[in-house]
Amino acid sequence: MPVGTLVLEDVTKSFITPEKRTVTAVDKANLRIEQGQFVTLLGPSGCGKTTTLRMIAGFEFPTNGRILLDGRDIANMPPNKREMAMVFQSYALFPHLSVFDNIAYGLQLQNKSGAEIKRIVGEMTSLVNLGGLERRRPAELSGGQQQRVALARAIAIRPKVLLFDEPLSNLDAKLRVGLRTEIRRLQKKLGISSVYVTHDQSEAMSLSDLIVVMNAGKIEQIGKPHEIYLRPTNKFVADFIGRANFVAVNVLALHNTPKGERAEIELLGQRMLVPAQAGLQANRAATLVIRPESILISEQAADLPTPHFAAQVRTTTYYGVNVEYDLGTGNTELNVVDNDSSRILPEGSNVFWSFAADRAYVLNE
Ligand SMILES: Nc1ncnc2c1ncn2[C@@H]1O[C@H](COP(=O)(O)OP(=O)(O)O)[C@@H](O)[C@H]1O
Ligand SMILES: [Mg+2]
């Protein structure tokens, strides 16, 4: 029997506000998390991430739908019976307890012996690099150290599922990257199924086996990081994950190729074959999505693969690691990120641009 398989079936949560309005915070969410998977709920503030997590934890109960842990419906089970642990943005440590006692807390509730507790706390403190700090209180630790105590406390009880609600949001940028690597390393080592809530797309990209993109209570897309990035299901997902250029195109025909569905599009008077979303129709308008870093530019057309297109540089912004350009081409504006920062194409210059078809995607909208 796999341990830590979590399934959400048509889970809905509606709240009645004090003004007697009904707010549907989560609308028919369907999701399957396999044992040991790291799944991130990603979306803008207010899209229903925390509410989803709180229902999984048992702090809220669904208005409709089922939540199954290893095949058992837990939708109405109290939180302490679910064998889950949660790490919060605010750390939520007991301020009057030492690091040792904070980590030991859940083990005491499990009626472990003193010797057993000592052994496990020792193991946890070394896992999260807190050795030597066992007697400190939370106020005597940095934010990053406090969050590592919270992490140790969560994994000490060997939960079936680990839940995280924006655990790194209160830390500064450098610590955030360090601790996120640590969270991923630990989670992989222990193999605990994890659900992680964030509004930070780079966090979601770097941590996840699977990303669940949410918007206004609804799941927009579930996929691996590269699928979400290269094959977004709609403009919202494309725009929320990284940056995207959207270009209106005409679909001339559809081709089922060995590499998948391709749309033959007309772009600025030229034809090309681009990977396409299912459900597109010929002779209809569609949207071509091209990431800024997928666009190649040159002053010489001969440097570029065909087809290529003429453009004029409207703005040039130098960042050191790269150079950004806004190009005017046809009646479209394109944002370009050029990793070659050894050359700077001046504003007003005439250039050509192109892109590898496999790096673009045609959307049905
Ligand atoms: N207890 C509540 N009562 C009324 N509305 C709520 C309550 N909790 C959350 N909401 C509303 O549900 C929506 C989703 O909230 P939340 O899950 O916290 O979003 P997120 O975590 O993605 O920022 C928001 O519109 C929020 O105002
Ligand atoms: Mg939230």
Question: Tags for this entry?
Answer:
365 residues; elongated; 2 domains; Rossmann fold; 8 helices; OB fold (Dihydrolipoamide Acetyltransferase, E2P); single chain; alpha+beta; 23% helix; binds magnesium ion; binds adenosine-5'-diphosphate
Please, could you describe this protein's structure?
- The chain has helices at residues 49-57, 99-109, 114-127, 143-156, 173-190, 201-207, 225-230, 235-240; strands at 6-16, 22-33, 38-42, 64-69, 72-73, 84-88, 161-165, 193-198, 210-215, 218-223, 245-257, 260-267, 270-275, 284-290, 295-298, 309-318, 323-329, 332-338, 350-355, 360-363.
- α2 crosses α3 (114-127), α2 (99-109) packs parallel to α4 (143-156) and α3 crosses α4 (143-156).
- It has eight helices and 20 strands.
- The chain has a six-stranded mixed beta sheet with strand order 6-7-8-3-9-10, sandwiched between helices. It has a five-stranded antiparallel beta sheet with strand order 13-12-11-14-20, with no helix packed on it.
- It folds into two domains: 6-236, Rossmann fold (3-Layer(aba) Sandwich), CATH 3.40.50; 243-363, Nucleic acid-binding proteins (OB fold (Dihydrolipoamide Acetyltransferase, E2P), Beta Barrel), CATH 2.40.50.
- The chain is elongated.
- With 365 residues, the chain is of the alpha+beta class.
- Bound molecules: adenosine-5'-diphosphate and magnesium ion.
- Residues 49-50 line the site of magnesium ion (MG).
